[in-house]
Write the structure tokens for this entry.
Amino acid sequence: MAQDPLERVFNGGFGEGTDGWFASEAAPVSVVDGKLCADVPGDTHQPSDVIIGQNDIWLQRDKPYALSFTASASQPVRVKVQVQLSDEPWTAELSQDIALGPEQRHTCTFTSRVDTDRAAVSFQIGGNPAAWRFRVDDVSLTGGDPLPPYVPDTGPRVRVNQVGYLPFGSKRATVVTDATEPIPWQVNNGAGITVASGTSTPRGVDASSGQQVHTVDFSAVTEDGTGYTLSADGETSYPFDISATAYDQLRSDALHFFYVQRSGIAIDDALAPGYARPAGHVGVTPNQGDTSVPCQPGVGDYQLNVRGGWYDAGDHGKYVVNGGIAAYQLLSQFERTRTAPVARPDALGDGSLRVPERGNGVPDILDEARWELEFLLRMQVPAGRPLAGMAHHKVHDEKWTGLPLPPEEDSQPRELHPPSTAATLNLAATAAQGARLYAPFDPDFAARCLTAARTAWAAAQAHPAILASKTDTIGGGAYDDAHVSDEFYWAAAELFITTGEQTFLDALRASPHWTGEVFPPSGFSWQDVAALGLLDLATVPSLLPDADRDAARASVRAAADQYLATAREQAYGMPLTKDEYLWGSNSFVLNKLAVIATAFDLTGDERYRDGVVEGLDYLFGRNALNQSYVTGYGEHHSHNQHSRLYAHQITPASPAPPAGSIAGGPNTGLEDPKARRVLIDRTVDPPKRPEPQFSYIDDIQSWSTNEITINWNSALSWVISFVADQRDGARHRDDQ
């Protein structure tokens, strides 16, 4: 059955677990026998000391509403039921005391005095002297007019890369139109003068958006300029530039994201204006700190100093497997400047980024990557302890925290979670990679990295199947991974490249990935990392026999060809099929583009370079939503990404996400309540889910479509660095 079109509560019957509901830390909730239950502590002082509720409730002024629910208490108590604004001035539209005991249905009515989409339904259940159990079910708030299905503002039907095109190579756009025959188009420069015209190519119905579309190719326009527009079918695109330096600033901004995500250091306003804050998680009250973090009960009887590193995403957790791929991609960007025929080492050198270490004689990107790598090293189980040499999978708060929450104000206890084989091999791989890259700048640190890598490799060999639990999701993400053969392959590759030792080459040749799948159709990710090892075997000088290196390079080219074939099939020009719009879909695009870019570095074949450049168009506005997914870039860009650190949308005093932050992107899973509530049309039976490209909302509460994470920004920065290096189509040099 479709949901009542007047229903304002999401998941009021708790058929989807606790989705959509929040609870005070003092009384965590669970669903038992279809009812939401909470054990309420005694000796609280006010009803508001313990709250269970739901935000993002829509109310209309002068409309009547009825709130009803079935509830019980394990002993007679009084609670307060409220419908109120969820932020200042917290005005209550309904506030009623209710006596609870045996299960009973309750109904309260009121007329709203406001128009808002920021109301909250809450059960304030504190203020009773004795502990008791609260149960509630079938929560419903009905009233007002039926809400129409959500229709995003997609702007003009002519979709372009809103950031800009490079002077050389392909320049394409997509037009949403009902026309079945080619339609005329024209490109005007910033002065309004027509510089190109032609007719479109019909593409039929695009499977990922459900739209009928045409492609426009204006590659003949090569003159630098700002304020270009493309007109077709009576509509004009957002403006765009054509410039050889279109991505230079974004290269800096995408990397600057990591500085403002740093844990354990005060963020300097001089380096990051508007983002200054005290150091987080250094043991200064109210923090309990990362300088002496205990293991979870049953994991170990020791504490570790795991300060530093980057906050992983929108929360304050730090995860070795996600930190591993992110650190790798920063290190890889630097290593590419040593191996790629078309690269600009100065763009990532000392003084190139806004980091406190600039001017120390070390390339700034290595300074930034080291901040994370030092943290990864600290996560290693010390000698003399059980599982010595393994790496703890993650460290984060004991319980989930709400938004917003600056790191220095987080009062939750921190915990070290059990070691895992995947985390240990991430440490081995990144530390081995770091050992060769830091050697010219800090030989002692490089030696420390290599020692840690060898120790981690040996520990993983001894414990090859300690897997992270997929249910370990209280206070942080699970980051579980059921298969670690790819991590073994990656770690062996990095250790072999760095040391040249036969032991690691033998491990590579014994791996199922030596001749099996390395590049998944959906692209590599933190869960599929074999490609990282093969990309380095193909590009980084080593003692790998020539025949094996040739095979690695052929594998890269084959994967790139596969991804380009996917892109050619898509009317919007990106290497993403309609089935790949999952959590972090934008990173799938970027990681595939990184493989295609590597194929260009290896071959100089311009179709690979052009494929990367065109694939970026999708991320910067040439998509069904006409949305650039990178904060600060494009006429219509994401700026409300999910984060406790950058919560301007709900707290004006908090900053917005910094320029250069990429959103996760469309996700057909819609795993968060905000996305489900807004994007699923429940006025029809059965409820209608959006098309894949429309499965996105730029809202801070939509963590499954709009979160920021270090591994997505590391992918962005890698690809942007590649594109920025291309400049005016600099010729490839085959002198590797």
Summary: DSSP finds 14 helices and 26 strands in the chain. Residues 732-736 have pLDDT under 50 and may be disordered. Residues 282 and 289 are 5 Å apart (CA to CA).
